[in-house]
Design goal:
Blueprint lengths: L1 H26 L3 H5 L14 H13 L5 H21 L49 E4 L17 E3 L4 E6 L13 E7 L4 E11 L6 E2 L4 E5 L14 E10 L2 E4 L3 H6 L7
Antiparallel strand pairs: 1-8, 2-7, 3-4, 3-6, 4-5, 5-7, 5-8, 8-9
Helix pairs in contact: 3-4
Length: 269
């Protein structure tokens, strides 16, 4: 019996010692728990610029996914931010006598459509989006009989130039044949100096970027045939140009034909 005790006692003592250490360890906080924050923070998501938010709003308006009053209120608020952003980025005021005709190698003689030059403001409402009425715009046609979006005289694409100064506030780079989107690949420029929104539609490729500051004569795109009606064979290749005057947050059509006849022309290079 004494021999058995002498044999088992060391084993029992060892087991008790192990369990004692385990119990003490379980009761002590881990060093990592003391030094690490128990709250996991999410990575910071950069906020969208005013131009990005206006572009998103314009898409909602275009697709009829926002009410007119809500869109008007948000548009009015964002335009205040865009004005500040334009000048903060070094934008300057350009008077109308500095404007540049929006197609390189062309002038106002490329605008056809009878006495009114195809301009019909009645029935238009910007907040009606893709389903708006009227035609408060000028279609400026290029020489392109075979409809390959190249100038027949030079065999080159025709550059779309900025009529005014401003900041690029909305655009669409993607368009597929058969899409109901009327403007195709388009751009919107906000001109704070004259409180204008200028729309360039049916482009083939866009070169301007969202939020970019532009001056009269800067290249924005090249003429194309994108857009529901513009892509049809019956439609000659042209730039669709529309200018809207901002009044209390409402973009209203303004006829700038006279300004287009006086705009400085740029030769095709």
């Amino acid at each position: 019996m004494n021999l058995l005790c002498r044999t088992l006692l060391p084993v029992v003592f060892c087991i008790v010692t192990v369990f004692t250490h385990l119990a003490l360890a379980a009761g002590q906080p881990d060093l990592a728990e003391l030094t690490e924050s128990p709250v996991k923070t999410s990575p910071t998501v950069p906020s969208l610029s005013a131009a990005e938010r206006f572009n998103s709003l314009n898409t909602l308006v275009r697709d009829g996914k926002i009410g007119r009053e809500a869109a008007r209120n948000e548009s009015k608020r964002l335009l205040v931010e865009l004005r500040a952003e334009y000048y903060r980025k070094g934008g300057t005021d350009y008077r109308k006598d500095t404007w540049v005709f929006p197609l390189a190698g062309y002038d106002a003689r490329a605008i056809t459509g009878g006495r009114n030059k195809g301009y019909i403001s009645s029935g238009y409402n910007y907040f009606s989006g893709n389903r708006h009425g009227g035609h408060p715009a000028f279609d400026i046609f290029i020489h392109d009989r075979n409809q390959d979006s190249l100038d027949d005289r030079s065999g080159k694409p025709v550059k779309v130039l900025s009529l005014t100064g401003g900041i690029v506030v909305a655009l669409e780079r993607e368009w597929k044949q058969g899409s109901s989107l009327r403007g195709g690949k388009y751009l919107w420029i906000y001109d704070p100096a004259n409180d204008l929104l200028v729309y360039y539609a049916h482009n083939r490729d866009l070169f301007a970027k969202l939020g970019e500051i532009v001056k009269p004569g800067d290249q924005l795109a090249i003429v194309g045939r994108s857009g529901y009606n513009a892509a049809k064979h019956r439609s000659p290749s042209h730039l669709h140009l529309s200018v809207l005057q901002l009044k209390e947050g409402r973009p209203l059509p303004v006829n700038v034909y006279r300004e287009l006849t006086k705009a400085r022309t740029v030769a095709e290079h």
